[in-house]
Design a protein that fits this description.
Growth Hormone, Chain: A; MFS_dom; about 0% strand; mainly alpha; 2 strands; two-stranded antiparallel ribbon; Na+/melibiose symporter
Amino acid sequence: MDESKPLPAPATAGTTTATAVSTGAPPSRYPQIAIPLAILGFSIALVPPLVITIALRLRELDLDGAGAALGLVLGVGAVFSLIANPLAGRFSDRTTGRLGMRKPWIFSGAALGYAGIVVIAVAPNVAVVLVGWSIAQVGLNFALAALVAMLPDQIGPERRGRTASFISLAQNVGGVAATFLVQLFPAGPVQYLVPSLIGVVLMVAVIAPVRDRVRVERVREPFDLKALLGSFVFNPRKNPDLGWAWLTRFFLTTTQFTATSYLTYFLIERFGVTDEEAPTLVFQAILANAVGILLVAPLLGWLSDRLRRRKLFVIISSAIAVVGLTVIALAPSIEAVLLGELVLGAGLGAFFAVELALIADVLPSEETAGKDLGVANLAQSLPQSLIPVAAPGLIASFGYLGLFLGGAIFGVLGAVSVTRVKKVR
């Protein structure tokens, strides 16, 4: 799709024409590079607090209650991400101005997200950590929603599979880079602040040259309560393929997040590692996971475009991911955990290679791509809200074995749900 083409608003009685803005000639295929690199920056910004630094900060503030506090902070933060992501997608669909439809949300979201991370670094108690993480989730999800909406804006269907595979690589390489950066710094504010700052700067810098699509007509219809609630839903009866693709993403994201949300505490409690050793071991686990993804995702993204098939790769990925989580659940040593992460990464690599392309292929309309992708992104955010709520009870009742095997069950459900998508092979 030509990124310099202005986007007209739907023809309704409630619209008026605004001044057209020319975006000029875009750099050749630059968005195919810029979007994955921006996602890389997003991941570097998000992963340190999500996986390591919040957990360690809470142990500093309340050692005995850290596990329950982590569930509360991650759960409430994920609720804010659930709200922010689809709203930002909906608002970006309606945004006019010379910067374009998506970039204003990326820039402002990056700034707000980092402000929340600063709050976490200086928080004197658990309540302020919760506030900081909620702010960070709102801001970073503003940016993520607009970034993902750029995929159908900028990339044609014939290249979406390979671009989606590079996006998935960027997300997971970002996790490795983030955890590597964290363990380079001594515990304290610098460890919390510097890695995320690097990610935010990268995200903004690479997306700035993109010639964003421009809406040349301003939507005048009021954004009332009905429109607001519509930001969070689509009609699965009218768009069943999007509904099944949404469920597939939800199930496999649950599988993925089960393996990372309590990884720091799992290593500390199962294998007796210290708080100082934990960042390095988490880095090694995330690295093993990323190696599995790197071995699989680029090839399968290309192959998916070549064969024009998506569902087969999702089914294969689900089976491999289930094996990986089972190995982690039964691991007798840290080395076995690393092996399980490697296998899990290979499975998730097969999934990430095609799942974003699958979502983009079943969108009902380009006119509402930002809103619909925002709703689809709920399938990634919702597990981050549900797992922290459910995990403490699961761990108390069944141990980490129950937590990880529960995640494996969702992998099986993901394989089942993708078979119901009809529009995509």
